[in-house]
Amino acid sequence: MKRQSSDPSQANSALSRRQFGKASAVAIGASAGFHFFPALANKRLEKPTLAAIGIGGKGNADNKNAAKVGFEIVALVDIVDIKKLKNVARRLKSVAGSRDDHPDAEFFSDYREMLSQMGDKVDAVMVSTPDHHHFHASALAMQAGKHVYCQKPLTHGIWEARQLTQIAKQTGLKTQMGNQAHANDVMRRGVELIRSGIIGKVQEIHAWTNRPIWPQGFAARPEKQPVPDGIDWQQWIGPAPWTDYSPHIAPFAWRGWWDYGCGALGDMACHIMDLGYWAMNPGPPQSVRATQSGATELSAPINSIVTWDFGPNQYSAADGFKFHWYDGYVNATFDRKKWQLEKHGDQYNHPAADVLDGQDFEKFGSVIIGSEGKMFFRRSAGWVITPDALAADAKSVPKTLPRAPQQNNYGEWISAIQGTIDQSESNFSLAGPMTETILLGVLAQRFPESSLVWNAEAMEIQGRPELTKHIHREYRDGWKIDV
Prior knowledge:
Elements: H1 17-32, H2 38-41, E1 49-53, H3 58-69, E2 72-77, H4 93-101, E3 106-108, H5 111-118, E4 124-127, H6 134-143, E5 147-151, H7 158-171, E6 175-178, H8 185-196, E7 202-209, H9 233-237, H10 263-272, H11 274-280, E8 287-293, E9 303-310, E10 321-327, E11 333-335, E12 340-342, H12 353-356, E13 366-370, E14 374-378, E15 382-386, H13 388-391, H14 409-418, H15 428-446, E16 452-455, E17 460-461, H16 468-471
Parallel strand pairs: 1-2, 1-4, 2-3, 4-5, 5-6, 7-10
Antiparallel strand pairs: 7-13, 8-9, 8-16, 9-10, 11-12, 13-14, 14-15, 16-17
Helix pairs in contact: 1-5, 1-6, 3-4, 6-7, 7-15, 8-11, 10-15
């Protein structure tokens, strides 16, 4: 499929002064990868300084929560310069809020320039950008010795997740993925109960969501529109393939684009699959398969079912276990005129009746099936264990996981930075492999015709070399990074 236009950054080989600054910042960040800063990982910081990358929407909420637990926000990065934007749409008002909340913070449109110019004035970085920037922002920050909090999914690509895991291990920096419920006591207690064997050896896990509620299933790009003053579209595209500006991409609808987001699975699985994945600590899956409706060359599916096969471990059945994922409304369609999903009925994908055992799927997000019983779980509410006789045994299961301060994942991250704990529980050693697993499911959604057998060591799909470009994609000129 031909693109509407070529990337204008390729039209002139001469670098402008600003482009040269960006290229220099990349070189600085990349070269830092060859001499990490392990001493900074254990530096005691009473009030760590923070650079916020992405300050609208979720970024605005992240900034507020970071400030509440004790960070001093000294830099703000966003492709929207609200002071230059003539018409501030509803979804961009939170960008203005972040600027107002931190009037003394330095403002940048390019995080590479921020890292280059701010240097040791920044102790930590919070990444709340669209998915396709997560890897570059986090990797460059860690290579520059900054602790990193990155929103979920940890990365846009499988190779990227592996690299962030390795950089975090090499540097010893304090890391956290933004799946906030990971810090809740009910989540940690659920993990302890599953690992205790209260429902027996795990045979299957099912997790589901009503997402997407944003546009997915489109087969052609929207019409090109002029880039509004105050929006740096070149920087928004960043390392990803070029597409002309349209409000049908940003600031909200990018999640449904393969090039920029990871669909409903990438968006929600880091939350909803968290209990089962964390409890099982399963290692890489052996294979993954998907069925879906509505996926195109451009867009993630309107709905899907994904199944991963995992080998056995101490918590599973002798032959391993299966992890099933369900997303999307069953009878939804994409309306191109409105550029939105239209629901035809109110039922979204969920497990079959024999899995649910009479439980209302709308009250839960996952069920873990063991040889002796089941645990139905919702991250905001807790669990139900069946049969009832097993639930009585829960009181005797000891606590084995540390609890987060005030059940707050921002507080847990700053505690790690300040040295009162070693690491956040959702640090990149857990978040990286979980993201790899989820993104293998995203790959299966794109190629649903057969089971994909995963060679984790080689990072390749067995017998499918043509899929390698989707595991580790090429970046636009000026965005290549050494790791």
